[in-house]
């Protein structure tokens, strides 16, 4: 931590903590306080969008670069000064963090990257913004910004496009020109750009899509029909749309009338425009959401018809027209509903929180050379190899079908969209183009684990040391999902096909399309049956889901790696089709050594160590899920710092399946064994 003082104030530079949504996270920031005071206020921060976890590192590298890394090693922020002869770092008495070279010249300074404050001596140039924080306790970028113009400064609401709500002309005392750029400077005080919640009068004082009345009460327009409060107890937090606006669906949009409403931005350009033109202009502008509409109706002229036949003919004709209009209306409704459902599907994907990079279809088509090199395919689609412009290799999964796409993409993004962990495959981005949907991952050069462990399919036989490393990698990946994420993530489909290997045979979990987020206070949840035959824990058939479901699946994968065969193998004798049945029989007969992969001499050399690892699998495969270990305990056992439970139940198989196999009545599962019943 750096600290500097003046006669009236003191500055500090280091990690500061913030409590957001009940979790403590950290920012690398500069803060100010009165001399000898303890009330610190942040005046600058590095990458305020991204809060880091405990154990994050700020590194001043030998190449002269200041680098902020999160606890998982990912780079959050950097000064990009490598190779620029930086020799030192200094926090000046004006609160400016400076990197300087051998000539004591400034190479980089925080004054060039303002956040929400302007310190004495700091300039705000025309191409820069002061952007407010979300709140006093959350320094992420808020909705309000301040910019310098040729005549002064203007405050904006960050909508699309930004809308000005305040401007002020300032004299030469506060503005100047440097290399053709207008700037603003405050020499005798601090310009802090913030919003006071106690003094209404600025845009969105009541939050988004909300109305502030003259008595300073907040409410939602068209409540319950079009909008609902974000929080019933805190009306100033704004309103959510019950049905979100879709930019290209103007035929399904209407206007609600808001009387006596004053809007903060100018509408002078619409003064001589008739109401219909105004409405059409708003419908064609995606960001337009404020107007007043009047519906004009005209009464039909009534004529006396003296002849009774004319009345009858008119009645029949009117009934026919009515039926015709009803039929046309119904057909039109069905057509637009189907069209709207497709559009909402597209829009839904755009609004998923935490979404990574969005690629265009053309980008992926070019990257994969028109999807020419298929790496494989599974239950949810095909996977293709590709290469981006920066030469980094990617794997592109094309999702096929319609009904499950939204759930699959949402589960994938919610699970790993914002997670970067060494034993999880990184989700690089996504693409939605009409009816086509893609997920983009880092490329794993050695493919999936099943290519390397099954006899008759593997490319070459893995040695025991490599298998042991892969097993530990898988265990660490699952333990991270269960215990180290902010929300517990249950994968629900752990199998060799979903475990990928990089160039150095480091194992990473992939395919989170079935995963489920569970609150850490929950011990179990009820859900529909999901997973792949053979890897599904027994309790799943009663729809009980806990993290122990993944422990069971891990136990099956562990056995397959140690034995070099599939959990269900028709090439074996009929009584040995099921690996679990063989495992149970070998426990009863004391012949576990016979299960060690016979196609590997190295495995046979280490077969006693392999059998010890089989005991870990035995604990994971307990039929009573409450008796299985946590994945963190599995990691400890594999690392040799914890012993396996001695009092285990070795009846691994369902008695009914056991009976069917014994009498030759067992019906083999389908080749594509993935289950997802909803």
Automatic annotation (TrEMBL):
Annotated SMART domains: B_lectin (SM00108), S_TKc (SM00220)
Localisation: Membrane
Main location (coarse class): membrane
UniProt EC number: 2.7.11.1
Transmembrane portions of the chain: 312-335
CDD domains: B_lectin, PAN_AP_plant
Protein name: non-specific serine/threonine protein kinase
Catalytic activity: L-threonyl-[protein] + ATP = O-phospho-L-threonyl-[protein] + ADP + H(+); L-seryl-[protein] + ATP = O-phospho-L-seryl-[protein] + ADP + H(+)
Annotated source species: Tagetes erecta (African marigold)
Binding positions (ATP): 397
One GO cellular component term: membrane
Residue stretches making up the Protein kinase domain: 369-642
Chain ranges of the Bulb-type lectin domain: 1-112
GO molecular function: ATP binding; carbohydrate binding; protein serine/threonine kinase activity
Keyword entries, A-Z: ATP-binding, Disulfide bond, EGF-like domain, Glycoprotein, Kinase, Lectin, Membrane, Nucleotide-binding, Phosphoprotein, Receptor, Serine/threonine-protein kinase, Signal, Transferase, Transmembrane, Transmembrane helix
Classification via InterPro entries: Bulb-type_lectin_dom, Bulb-type_lectin_dom_sf, G-type_lectin_kinases/EP1-like, Kinase-like_dom_sf, Pan_app, Prot_kinase_dom, Protein_kinase_ATP_BS, Ser/Thr_kinase_AS
Keyword Transferase: yes
A Pfam cross-reference name: B_lectin
């Amino acid at each position: 931590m750096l600290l500097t003082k003046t006669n009236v104030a003191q500055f500090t530079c280091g990690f500061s903590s913030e409590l957001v949504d009940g979790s403590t996270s950290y920012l690398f920031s500069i803060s100010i306080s009165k001399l000898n005071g303890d009330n610190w206020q942040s005046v600058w921060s590095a990458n305020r969008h991204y809060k880091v976890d405990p154990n994050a590192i700020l590194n001043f590298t030998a190449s002269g670069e200041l680098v902020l890394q999160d606890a998982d090693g990912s780079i959050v922020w950097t000064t990009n000064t490598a190779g620029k002869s930086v020799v030192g770092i200094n926090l000046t008495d004006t609160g400016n963090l400076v990197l300087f070279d051998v000539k004591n010249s400034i190479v980089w300074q925080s004054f060039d990257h303002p956040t929400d404050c302007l310190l004495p001596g700091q300039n705000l140039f025309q191409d820069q913004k002061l952007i407010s924080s979300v709140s006093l306790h959350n320094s992420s970028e808020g909705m309000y910004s301040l910019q310098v113009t040729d005549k002064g400064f203007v405050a904006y609401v960050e909508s699309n496009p930004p809308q000005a709500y305040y401007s002020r002309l300032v004299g030469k005392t506060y503005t100047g020109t440097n290399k053709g750029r207008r700037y603003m400077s405050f020499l005798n005080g601090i310009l802090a750009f913030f919003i006071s919640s106690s003094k209404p009068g600025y845009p969105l004082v009541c939050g988004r899509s909300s109305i502030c009345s003259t008595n300073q009460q907040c409410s939602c327009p068209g409540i319950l029909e079009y909008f609902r409060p974000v929080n019933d107890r805190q009306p100033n937090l704004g309103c959510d749309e019950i049905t979100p606006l879709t930019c290209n669906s103007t035929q399904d949009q209407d206007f609600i009338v808001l009387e006596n409403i004053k809007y903060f931005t100018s509408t002078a350009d619409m003064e001589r425009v008739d109401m219909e033109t105004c409405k059409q202009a708003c419908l064609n502008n995606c960001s337009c959401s404020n107007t007043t509409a009047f519906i004009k109706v005209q009464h039909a002229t009534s004529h006396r018809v003296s002849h009774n036949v004319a009345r009858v003919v008119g009645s029949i004709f009117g009934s026919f027209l009515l039926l015709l209009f009803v039929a046309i209306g119904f057909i039109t409704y069905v057509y637009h509903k189907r069209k709207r459902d497709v559009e909402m599907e597209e829009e839904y994907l755009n609004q998923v929180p935490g979404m990574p990079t969005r690629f265009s279809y053309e980008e992926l088509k070019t990257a994969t050379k028109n999807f020419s090199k298929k790496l494989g395919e599974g239950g949810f689609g095909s996977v293709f190899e590709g290469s981006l412009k920066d030469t980094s290799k990617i794997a592109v999964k094309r999702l096929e079908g319609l009904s499950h796409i939204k759930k699959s993409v949402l589960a994938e993004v919610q699970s790993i969209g914002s997670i970067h962990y060494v034993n999880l495959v990184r989700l690089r981005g996504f693409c939605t183009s009409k009816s086509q949907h893609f997920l983009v991952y880092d490329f794993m050069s050695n493919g999936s684990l099943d290519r390397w462990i099954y006899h008759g399919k593997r490319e070459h036989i893995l040695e025991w040391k490599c298998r042991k490393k892969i097993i530990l990698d898988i265990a660490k990946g699952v333990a991270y999902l269960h215990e180290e994420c902010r929300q517990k993530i249950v994968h629900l489909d752990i199998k060799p096909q979903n475990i990928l290997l990089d160039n150095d045979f480091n194992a990473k979990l992939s395919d989170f399309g079935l995963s489920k987020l569970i609150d850490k206070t929950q011990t179990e949840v009820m859900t529909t049956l999901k997973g792949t035959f053979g890897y599904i824990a027994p309790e799943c058939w009663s729809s009980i889901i806990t993290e122990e479901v993944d422990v069971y699946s891990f136990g099956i994968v562990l056995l397959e790696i140690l034995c070099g065969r599939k959990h269900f193998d028709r090439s074996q004798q009929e009584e040995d089709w099921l690996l679990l049945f063989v495992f149970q029989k070998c426990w009863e007969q004391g012949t576990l050594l016979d299960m060690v992969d016979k196609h590997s001499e190295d495995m046979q050399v280490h077969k006693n160590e392999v059998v010890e690892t089989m005991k870990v699998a035995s604990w994971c495969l307990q039929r009573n899920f409450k008796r299985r270990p946590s994945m963190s305990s599995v990691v400890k056992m594999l690392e040799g710092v914890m012993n396996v439970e001695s009092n285990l139940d070795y009846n691994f198989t369902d008695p009914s399946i056991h009976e069917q196999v014994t009498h030759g009545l067992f019906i083999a599962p389908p080749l594509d064994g993935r289950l997802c019943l909803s």
